[in-house]
């Protein structure tokens, strides 16, 4: 059986090349696409689909891999697991879509800092218990900066900034601005890998930002408010955390990424959470239920599904599932909080979705910047890489 599987593996990665039949490009450490496009054209093979984006390649290069993961590119002949990746990604988006409305209700009776950081502390306790129960080893030292970026982005940045903003904004208003999140994730993904995206990518991303600013300036009571800028800061933080987490999830599995990020951050959350815990005895049951959701689901379980989807399908494809999040959040804001959804919100949300979709459809047109990790030649990949340690990948 082992010999048969090895033979299959050699068949998959071996192709006839000008250098000689059966040259193993992967074993030679040559990135897929180095000459591959020319060979494909010479053989009369079709071009890659237009939906291919620079982000999947950027994340693969940032992770030190010669090519994106299977299923990272949507199109004809997509990996059979592509729908599975989309399902995991959408499950994460569905979990996150309740975050703003429930946070908005929670800050009516709880301090914003307590809600923003306290939920991460609760999630860290759950994460620590899970890691201890499974006896998971510590992450490699080389990955600690990436874990720090995830922690700053999605454990501290997005929860704190968005919670502070929701003291002054309705959840429906904030959800329109958060619709820019997929574009922010794409920007961080290509920048982190040293890519040079096409001009169309930056035009689409800038158009999305302009749409957000116009919406905030025209729909707000007093025009653009500091709370709108807080939501933008939350979006930027989450984009960084998602991009870095998507890379780490392919090494550790989605659930370990958020668990370790929470555990590493927990010691810094104890003091500010304790100082902001005032008047807890007068909080209603519904507010505590909202806090429980954003702690256990938004901060913990939702990331299991989200990062696993990113690991299976890549940010380029799975990031598009976030396009549904502002629409879902608008619906929950109206149904759960009774907020009024204005035509301007709908128009702005659709405009932002269109801009974000455009960023996902564009491709890089130039090589990586000199001196970046993406510009260096990849080390040879073993023909039969060692398996991951037990419990190191995938969902629970």
From TrEMBL:
Cellular-component GO terms for this entry: membrane
Pfam families: EamA
Residue ranges, compositional bias (Pro residues): 382-396
Signal peptide: none
Topology versus the membrane: Multi-pass membrane protein
Recorded superkingdom: Bacteria
Family: Belongs to the EamA transporter family.
Name the UniProt record assigns to this protein: Drug/metabolite transporter (DMT)-like permease
SUPFAM superfamilies (UniProt xref): Multidrug resistance efflux transporter EmrE
UniProt keyword terms in alphabetical order: Membrane, Transmembrane, Transmembrane helix
Biased composition (Low complexity): 366-381
Subcellular location: Membrane
Database matches in InterPro entries: AA-Vitamin_Transporters, EamA_dom, EmrE-like
Annotated TM spans: 85-102, 114-132, 144-166, 172-193, 200-218, 224-243, 255-274, 286-307
Positions of the UniProt region annotated as Disordered: 1-49, 366-396
Domain EamA: 84-215, 227-357
